[in-house]
Amino acid sequence: MVLTAAQITSTAAQVQGVLGTFNNATDAFNKNDWPTYGNYLDNDVVAYNLSQPGYTVGKANVIAYFKSISTGTPADLQFDPTNEITWFPSVYPLAVQGVALWTHKASHHVKVSINYAFQFSPAKGFLLTVIWAQHLVGD
């Protein structure tokens, strides 16, 4: 398959948008900076497999969930992606998935390897629309 210049430019813009959101949201999450983290979430974001099988819907609810499991000490709640990231370009949704080291000291998880998958909306400024992470008992 040969891509046109416009397709290459479009794909590059998608990669930049997704990676910008991914990196900035991860940074805010790891600082436990919930107002800034919320800037990268769509209002209708869905977070799956958090503390129990099921899901949490809506920016305010997702932020409230993460605030509720945070001790207030950023080092106690961390999401550290490894370099094993797979990019899924498409028209919609755009997605990345990979492996991260998860720390949630309140549940005695320190640098536990978990799988994750995130989806982003190019129509909404590359905001996170779906957050999925491997369920761990206690989180």
Write the layout of secondary structure elements.
Elements: H1 5-30, H2 34-38, E1 41-48, E2 55-57, H3 59-69, E3 77-88, E4 94-104, E5 109-121, E6 127-133
Parallel strand pairs: 1-6
Antiparallel strand pairs: 1-2, 3-4, 4-5, 5-6
Structural class: alpha+beta
Output the strand order for the largest sheet.
2-1-6-5-4-3
The average pLDDT is 84
Largest sheet: 6 strands, mixed
Give me the count of strands: 6
Question: Which regions are unreliable across 5 or more consecutive residues at pLDDT < 50?
Answer: none
Number of domains: 1
Query: Which range best describes the helical content: under 10%, 10-25%, 25-40%, 40-55%, 55-70% or over 70%?
Result: 25-40%
CATH class: Alpha Beta
Order of helices and strands: HHEEHEEEE
- Please count the helical segments: 3
Strand content: 35-45%
- CATH architectural category: Roll
Keywords summarizing the entry:
139 residues; alpha+beta; Nuclear Transport Factor 2, Chain: A; 6-stranded mixed sheet; 3 helices; 6 strands; 39% strand
